[in-house]
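Handout, section B. The chain below has 72 residues.
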Amino acid sequence: MLLAGHKTLHQCGSSAQAEALACLEGLRSAVELIHMPIVMEMDNAEIVDGIKQQGPLKSAWATTIEEIKGVI
């Protein structure tokens, strides 16, 4: 199953932040609709590294990455 959506991002400082926000929204939607294991694909290494990183993050989108970790 492929899940897609769209949303306007009004204040986004970088492409990495946009990718993190898109990932968060996609995961939230998937968790609500799909009750099976979810495979997430992403091509932004900064966000992937942030999700994998343990401990505090110092990026501009650290809060979004922490929210992604909470959904996962």
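Note. DSSP finds three helices and no strands in the chain. Compare this with the example in section A.
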